[in-house]
Amino acid sequence: MSAALRSAVRDVVDFPKPGIIFKDITPILADGKLFRESISLLCATAGGAKIDKVVGIDARGFIFAAAVADRLGAGFVPVRKKGKLPWKTRQTAYTLEYGESIVELHEDAVKPGESVLLVDDLLATGGTAAASVKLLDELGANIVAISVLIELEFLAGRARLAPHTVHSILIY
Ligand code: AMP
Questions:
Q1: Which helix (H) or strand (E) holds 25?
Q2: How far apart are the CA of 152 and the centre of ligand 1, in A?
Q3: Are 137 and 164 contacting, i.e. CB atoms less than 8 angstroms apart?
Q4: CA 125 – ligand 1 centroid, Å
Q5: In whole angstroms, what is the distance from residue 12 CA to residue 19 CA?
Q6: Every domain of the chain and the residues it spans
Q7: How far apart are CA 145 and CA 15, in angstroms?
Q8: Is residue 160 annotated as a catalytic residue, yes or no?
Q9: What is 47-171's CATH number?
């Protein structure tokens, strides 16, 4: 795995609030070779399994998930923050560091038994991914794996997603 990919992640201290070190992935997106490499590595996490839908999490997850879906020949499905999806939705609330948030999924976005790869840019506490998993479980999706570019291991998000398989490309 490329050291260049890791060194392209920019740490932004105290964003969006004091005490947070924000992992800025825009330098990866802006570099054609690195962006392609990140997509190749995320695609490899599917392990050759047939994927019907790649599900991306609002909003940076969309960038990676859509490219992965195209590469795998799969459909793309967005999990969105509340109030953005126009059709019938399922929603679930989850806890943030301060307060609550709600994510939504279209009811017909995934059919029962379809194989799904859930993709986001970064796994922190795992709350967002766990809420997305809950919605996908309700629709009867077969979650092949949860794949993220960056995992903040010290926040133990992976444990919240058990027994699902979690793949990360860069671990901090
Ligand atoms: P969590 O629900 O705590 O796992 O947070 C994951 C979501 O918040 C992801 O969609 C990330 O894009 C974003 N996020 C959380 N912490 C950071 C961070 N330190 N740097 C960049 N994005 C973050």
A1: none
A2: 9
A3: no
A4: 8
A5: 11
A6: 47-171
A7: 29
A8: no
A9: 3.40.50.2020
